[in-house]
């Protein structure tokens, strides 16, 4: 809408300005400037992406070192710091613990003792933030006693905490019974715990009978398998479900072989020294394989066990085992 | 009974970090505006014009003195039912529209919905904002905001209008509009008190003019008197009588004591 | 008087609904609620707790939006940018202004929390479709609704706090900072006092510290009183007495703050 307001210029000033501002020289310089900026952008972006990717990879490899900084902080401080969000904080921390352990399981490697210690510390922090949260206790019960026996006393401590925090739940005392009967071989304590469990609302009717049979559970592989089976059926996490399935499978195989060994002993009056004797004598058609890659054997007390000790061996060890037999 | 009455109003602000430094905004300010008058206050920047108007609106509490609207104290919000206020650089709620503002004003005055609607249309036509009725205030230009605020002040048809720099930021068309509106309101018998530093506008529409300087009302006059007063000591380059009076008063300083609000320029 | 209060409240409510941040936060909260359904699938047994933890956190965050972003903008911003003259030039006194604004903001908070409550219920319905009923056996809708109602009350307390700071200080930044400090103190004060009380035999600290801590419990809003998240997430019973006391505490504390705000604001010069 530019009208010629001034009447006294014969070359209208607008056109003059237009001419001066739009010479090819000016156009070219504008194009050069835009080009230079675009070039700069083309250089910066890939650099940022590549460097960022390297940083991410480095962090990925470092992920093994710590689950979260929250784990090592004092419990009171963490609870204070999360304020009204301690519930979601406990959920996210638990998620990190499961990812941490899940990663190890996926790579088929057994975590080192200090890594189990870290997992335990993290689970303590999770239950500090929400002591009624059942999943951490469940995870502790199904991993620590089996793969990290050095943490048995701590597991007992955790379950006692669960029993206090969930007074209407029979499961903590049931777990404590199993820990003392199967792992700690303490029938007296075990019986005490299962009686406490039986008092809780909704406790299965067979709990009182377990009290008397606690002594039979020490190291009994079938008992272990059934215990785990009862728990894993309701697990919603696929990786852990696989982890339990493997253990249950191994325990059941051991129980199966043990049954055959006992049958051999009762028929011949002496125990076999090698498992092949079971096959030779027709008690089994084929020897089952240890899902953990070890070899089943009979020890001096005629008990069946496996070289893998029911833990994941490193890849090379598995190969060595396979070649040895 | 005067519509607006200020008696010996003083206001001292404390400022600085510990509020220890003192700034005197008003010193013994007295004013009486009769009903139906259009009173214009002029004065240099910082003379205390806005402060006086804010005290009248109950937005600021005077350090001493009193202010009355009709017979009610100025600090009583009930007197706002008879007042329309246009602040300096008005701010309306940015995200709402002028219709919503007017609706709010009408609801507060308990006007029936039909009346609110018709009055909204009428006022928006008056200030030439009919097309902008449903546009959020944040998209208004300064002139449009000023006119919208004027419509808001006029909505409940108040008896008294207090306008702080009503012409600021308006182009000549807008100024013409506001002057017309003030004249129209004057014809309706409303009392109008406004302050401005555009002397020509003040000269045109006021029935009485007051000059403020350093927190005091140092001179009062009427357009008729102005026509007669031509002080000898005034600079010859000034155009209008009011300007001459203004400069003479302001440059000379404060009027001698004893003439509260009734001083004449020499 | 009440009619005018309602008009000011409605005016404030309308203005607040035009703030874009309200919709941003609603969308984020809704996404969080959706995420809770996905995230909970990762866990073993306590799936309901995970869903409720995240959904109730979303409700909390949606509520927190109002005192921190809206209340301060609408009150301190009102004074800063002089829009307050729009209301005060009408026959509306300082007291009516404060209480009316509070009611408008309370209405906004209830609207946001109401929407997020419906989203939470929708998430629970989705969970019932996805997961086996066994995982939802601890569901207690009563506990959830009580917890949400108490969160709303906590939000109202915070709105009153934000308004008090806005009327007392001169800038929106300062008002935000003070409200944030009040929030953090409010959330922590009960834990700190409890720690001091429990540790009094073992640690040696000055009685002055204990006195200051206990006084803070009553001076600052004890927001932990309104926190029933744990009970809602685990489906525990909530004692009616506890709720009643929290309700009375919240309402009386809010009223006290508003009265204080009105007293302080009445003396303030707006120029």
Descriptive report:
- The complex is a heterotrimer of chains A (325), B (266) and C (271).
- By secondary structure, chain A is an all-alpha fold.
- Chain A has two domains: 69-227, Serine Threonine Protein Phosphatase 5, Tetratricopeptide repeat; 241-324, no CATH class.
- Chain A has 14 helices and two strands; from the N terminus they run αααααααααααααββα.
- In chain A, strand 1 (296-298) and strand 2 form a beta hairpin.
- In chain A, helix 7 (152-165) packs antiparallel against helix 8 (171-183) and helix 8 (171-183) runs antiparallel to helix 9 (187-198).
- Chain B has a domain at 4-89 and 161-252: Rossmann fold, CATH 3.40.50.
- Helix content of chain B is 33%, strand content 24%.
- Chain B has 266 residues and is of the alpha/beta class.
- Chain B has helices at 49-56, 98-108, 113-126, 142-154, 172-187, 199-205, 223-228, 241-252; strands at 4-15, 21-33, 38-42, 64-69, 72-73, 83-86, 160-164, 191-196, 208-213, 216-221.
- In chain B, strand 4 (64-69) and strand 5 form a beta hairpin.
- The radius of gyration of chain B is 19 Å and the shape is globular.
- Chain C has 271 residues and is an all-alpha fold.
- Chain C has one domain (2-266).
- In chain C, 79% of the residues lie in helices and 0% in strands.
- Chain C has helices at residues 2-17, 20-40, 47-80, 84-88, 94-130, 141-168, 172-198, 207-219, 229-234, 240-266.
- In chain C, helix 3 runs antiparallel to helix 5 (94-130), helix 5 (94-130) runs antiparallel to helix 6 and helix 6 (141-168) packs across helix 7.
- The model of chain C has no long low-confidence stretch (mean pLDDT 90).
- Chains in contact: A-C, B-C.
- Chains B and C meet through helix 1, strand 6 and helix 2 of B and helix 1 and helix 4 of C.
């Amino acid at each position: 809408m530019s009208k010629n307001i001034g009447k006294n210029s014969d070359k209208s000033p607008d056109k003059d300005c237009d001419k001066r501002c739009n010479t090819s020289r000016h156009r070219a310089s504008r194009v050069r400037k835009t080009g230079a900026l675009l070039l700069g952008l083309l250089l910066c972006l890939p650099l940022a992406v590549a460097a960022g990717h390297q940083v991410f990879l480095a962090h990925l490899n470092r992920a093994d070192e710590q689950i979260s900084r929250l784990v090592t902080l004092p419990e009171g401080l963490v609870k204070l710091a999360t304020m009204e969000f301690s519930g979601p904080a406990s959920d996210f921390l638990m998620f990190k613990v499961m990812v941490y352990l899940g990663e190890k399981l996926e790579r088929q490697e057994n975590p080192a003792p200090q890594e189990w210690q870290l997992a335990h510390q993290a689970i303590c922090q999770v239950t500090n933030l929400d002591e009624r949260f059942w999943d951490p206790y469940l995870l502790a019960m199904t991993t620590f006693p089996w793969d990290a026996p050095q943490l048995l006393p701590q597991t007992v401590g955790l379950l006692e905490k669960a029993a206090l925090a969930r007074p209407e739940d029979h499961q903590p005392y049931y777990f404590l019974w199993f820990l003392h009967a199967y792992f700690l071989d303490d029938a007296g304590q075990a019986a005490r715990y299962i009686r406490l469990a039986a008092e809780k609302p909704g406790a299965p009717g067979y709990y009182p009978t377990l009290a008397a049979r606690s002594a039979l559970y020490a190291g009994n592989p079938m008992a272990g398998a059934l215990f785990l089976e009862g728990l894993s059926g309701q697990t919603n996490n696929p990786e852990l479900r696989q982890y339990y399935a493997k253990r249950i499978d191994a325990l059941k195989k051991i129980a199966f072989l043990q049954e055959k060994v006992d049958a051999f002993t009762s028929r011949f009056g002496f125990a076999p020294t090698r498992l092949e004797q079971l096959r030779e004598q027709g008690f089994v058609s084929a020897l089952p394989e240890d899902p953990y890659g070890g070899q089943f054997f009979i020890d001096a007390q005629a008990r069946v066990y496996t070289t893998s000790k029911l833990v994941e061996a490193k890849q090379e060890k598995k190969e060595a085992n396979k070649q040895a037999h | 009974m005067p519509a607006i009455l200020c008696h010996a109003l003083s206001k001292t602000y404390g400022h600085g970090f510990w509020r220890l430094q003192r700034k005197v905004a008003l010193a013994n300010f007295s004013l009486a505006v009769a009903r139906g008058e259009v009173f214009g206050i002029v004065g240099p920047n910082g003379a205390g014009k806005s402060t006086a108007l804010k005290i009248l609106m109950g937005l600021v509490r005077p350090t001493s003195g009193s202010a009355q609207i009709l017979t009610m104290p100025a600090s009583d919000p009930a007197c706002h039912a008879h007042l329309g206020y246009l602040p300096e650089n008005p701010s309306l709620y940015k995200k709402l529209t002028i219709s919503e503002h007017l609706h709010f004003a009408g609801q507060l005055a308990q006007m029936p919905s039909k009346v609110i609607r018709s009055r909204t249309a009428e006022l928006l036509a008056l200030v030439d904002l009919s097309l902008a009725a449903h546009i959020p205030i944040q998209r208004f230009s300064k002139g449009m905001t000023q006119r919208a605020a004027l419509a808001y002040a006029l909505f409940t048809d108040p008896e008294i209008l207090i306008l702080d720099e009503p012409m600021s930021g308006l182009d000549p068309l807008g100024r013409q509009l506001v002057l017309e509106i003030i004249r129209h309101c004057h014809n309706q018998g409303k009392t109008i008190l406004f302050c401005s530093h555009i002397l020509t506008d003040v000269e045109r529409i006021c029935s009485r003019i007051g000059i403020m300087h350093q927190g005091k009302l140092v001179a009062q006059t009427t357009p008729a008197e102005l026509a007669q007063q031509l002080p000898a000591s005034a600079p010859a380059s000034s155009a209008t009588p009011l300007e001459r009076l203004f400069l003479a008063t302001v440059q000379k300083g404060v009027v001698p004591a004893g003439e509260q609000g009734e001083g004449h320029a020499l | 008087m009440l009619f005018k209060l309602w008009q000011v409240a409605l005016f404030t409510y309308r203005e607040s609904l035009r703030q874009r941040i309200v919709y941003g936060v609603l969308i984020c909260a809704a996404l969080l609620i959706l995420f809770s359904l996905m995230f909970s699938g990762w866990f073993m047994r306590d799936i309901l707790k995970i869903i409720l933890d995240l959904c109730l956190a979303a409700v909390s965050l949606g509520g927190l939006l109002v005192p921190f972003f809206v209340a301060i903008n609408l009150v301190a911003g009102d004074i800063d940018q002089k829009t307050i003259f729009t209301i005060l030039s009408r026959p509306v006194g300082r007291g009516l202004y404060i209480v009316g604004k509070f009611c408008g903001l309370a209405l906004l908070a209830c609207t946001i929390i109401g929407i997020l409550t419906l989203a939470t219920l929708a998430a629970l319905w989705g969970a019932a479709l996805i997961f086996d009923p066994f995982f939802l056996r601890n569901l207690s809708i009563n506990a959830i609704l009580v917890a949400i109602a108490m969160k709303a009350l906590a939000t109202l307390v915070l709105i009153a706090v934000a308004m008090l700071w806005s009327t007392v200080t001169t800038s929106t930044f300062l008002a935000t900072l003070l409200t944030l400090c009040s929030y953090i103190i409010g959330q922590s004060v009960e834990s700190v006092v409890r720690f001091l009380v429990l540790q009094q035999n073992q640690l040696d600290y000055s009685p002055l510290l204990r006195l200051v801590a206990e006084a803070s419990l009553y001076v600052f809003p004890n927001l932990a009183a309104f926190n029933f998240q744990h009970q809602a997430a685990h489906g525990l019973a909530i004692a009616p007495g506890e709720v009643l006391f929290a309700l009375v505490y919240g309402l009386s504390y809010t009223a006290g703050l508003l009265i204080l705000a009105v007293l302080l604001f009445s003396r303030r010069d707006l120029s």
